[in-house]
Design a protein that fits this description.
Elements (H helix, E strand, L loop, with lengths): L3 H37 L5 H8 L3 H29 L1 H20 L4 H29 L3 H33 L2 H5 L1 H11 L16 H22 L3 H24 L7 H5 L3 H30 L3 H7 L1 H4 L1 H16 L2 H23 L4 H29 L5 H24 L7 H4 L1 H22 L1
Helix pairs in contact: 1-5, 1-6, 1-8, 3-4, 3-5, 3-9, 3-18, 4-5, 4-8, 6-13, 6-15, 9-10, 9-18, 12-16, 12-17, 12-18, 12-20, 15-17, 16-17, 16-20, 17-18
Organism: Streptomyces rubellomurinus (strain ATCC 31215)
Membrane topology: Multi-pass membrane protein
GO molecular function: transmembrane transporter activity
């Protein structure tokens, strides 16, 4: 029987450990919040950024996609880096680089310097995301506690989607687009303070990293994106050379993957039944989400003459549901599984993009636009949490981590393509019909998921 003296000694120590874990979890969650905030907060700053730096639409596209290209491509190996060198080192280095890169971005003298710095921010973000999940796993080894911790992590990070455009709009109105980056500096310092100490720690491992394969993956995504942006800008020779370079990079990547002892893309995960359809769905969701977030602020400024702060508020029907709806999605997934919420979310997102097309054709009446925004917001918040569950449970034994990293990577690829493709129509008369492209992408992904689900249900 435990003596009262031992209980008295143990209770303060246990309370201290609990406080340390809670503080660390808050820091890890805020780090992910900062990374996701940077994907949405820049949206309403686009018009001010273009006028301040004299940027074309192509320059704006690269300011957005420079982040997602580096983020998406490097996510493929970021988990291996965290495993090999320690998740705490990768996370802290990523957060420090994110803060420093944000400070430099705030003083960028021209658009292409900003694009380069956005790529640095994407690389820093890639270092943080897999490491954050690894750290939560070590902080909460008990499954029930880990589930609650992941729920907190998801809820805090979901607020980035909810408040990103609104915060960005207020900052731009107060101090211009540069303030959007300055806000990350104290936030990064706060995160580093919260994760300091021995509580946040991950052991070193022996996992190998194929840097040549990773370089080929980055080149493939960057050159492909450049070709799409050049096509939208009618720069045909530029598009041709970038497309040719992208094809060479694809060939080099495939050749390297076949020979590598540590391939960038985990073959066993890719071969899992239904995985291809789920990854396609993840790419389609981000294609629609980031494509819409890129073109709608430009449209709202041009057609409705909204200030950045007002434009940020106008996005609330789309950005608020991801702040609370994942809790409902979690209950639905627990009751009926992840496949139906994925299908429902894709259907809502496709419908929302269809409403956007109708709104643009009718002169952009905001009430109709708000209906589309609401449908898209619920679609994203149903589809993405269920996709994470579906991908992890579909992955082969021991492949859940790699599958989660792959889902994040293809989502960033989808975001990159969304901005590149939709940006080509941002200033043209065919924008209304272009809004049907993300609707078609989500509808095609829904059909693929439905087809993949049938043999799994039988």
């Amino acid at each position: 029987m435990t003596s009262p003296a031992l209980l008295a000694a143990a209770t303060p120590a246990a309370a201290h450990r609990a406080r340390s874990r809670t503080r660390a979890l808050l820091g890890i969650s805020l780090g992910y919040f900062m990374v996701l905030l940077d994907t949405t907060v820049l949206a309403v700053a686009e018009p001010d950024l273009a006028s301040s730096l004299g940027s074309s639409t192509a320059g704006l596209q690269w300011a957005v996609t420079g982040y997602s290209v580096a983020f998406g491509a490097l996510l493929l190996s970021a988990g291996a880096v965290a495993d090999r060198h320690g998740a705490h080192r990768a996370f802290r280095l990523g957060i420090a680089a994110f803060g420093a890169g944000s400070l430099l971005s705030a003083f960028a003298p021209d658009i292409w310097t900003l694009v380069a710095l956005r790529a640095v921010l994407g690389a820093a973000a890639a270092a943080c995301v897999p490491a954050s999940m690894a750290l939560i796993t070590r902080l909460y080894p008990v499954a029930a506690e880990r589930a609650r911790a992941v729920a907190v992590w998801a809820a805090v990070s979901g607020c980035a989607m909810a408040f990103g455009p609104m915060v960005g709009g207020v900052l731009v109105d107060l101090a211009g687009w540069r303030a959007v980056f300055l806000v990350n500096v104290p936030l990064a310092a706060l995160v580093l303070g919260l994760v300091a100490g021995r509580t946040v720690h991950g052991p070193r491992g022996e996992r190998r990293i194929d840097w040549w394969g990773q370089l080929a993956a980055c080149a493939t995504l960057a050159l492909g994106t450049d070709a799409l942006i050049a096509l939208g800008d009618s720069a045909w020779p530029h598009a041709g050379w970038s497309g040719l370079g992208g094809a060479v990079a694809v060939a080099a990547f495939v050749r390297r993957e076949r020979r590598s002892p540590a391939p960038v893309l985990p073959a066993a995960v890719l071969r899992a039944r239904g995985m291809g359809a789920l990854l396609l769905a993840g790419a389609a969701v981000n294609f629609a989400l980031l494509g819409v977030l890129f073109v709608l602020p430009l449209l709202l400024r041009r057609e409705l003459h909204l200030s950045p702060a007002t434009a940020g508020l106008a996005f609330l029907p789309m950005t608020l549901p991801p702040g609370f709806n994942p809790l409902l999605t979690g209950r639905i997934v627990a009751k009926v599984g992840p496949w139906k919420p994925v299908l429902g979310g894709l259907a809502l997102l496709a419908a929302g993009c269809g409403v956007f097309a109708a709104a643009v054709l009718l002169g952009t009446p905001y009430p109709l636009l708000a209906v589309g925004l609401l449908a898209a917001g619920f679609g994203v918040s149903f589809a993405l949490p269920a996709l994470v569950t579906a991908v992890v449970t579909t992955a082969p034994e021991g492949g859940a981590g790699a599958a989660g990293g792959l889902l994040n990577a293809v989502r960033q690829v989808g975001a990159t393509l969304g901005v590149a493709v939709m940006g080509a129509f941002a200033a043209g008369p065919s924008l209304a019909w272009a809004m049907l492209l993300p609707a078609a992408a989500c509808a095609a992904a829904a059909l693929a998921v439905r087809r993949a689900r049938r043999p799994l249900d039988s």
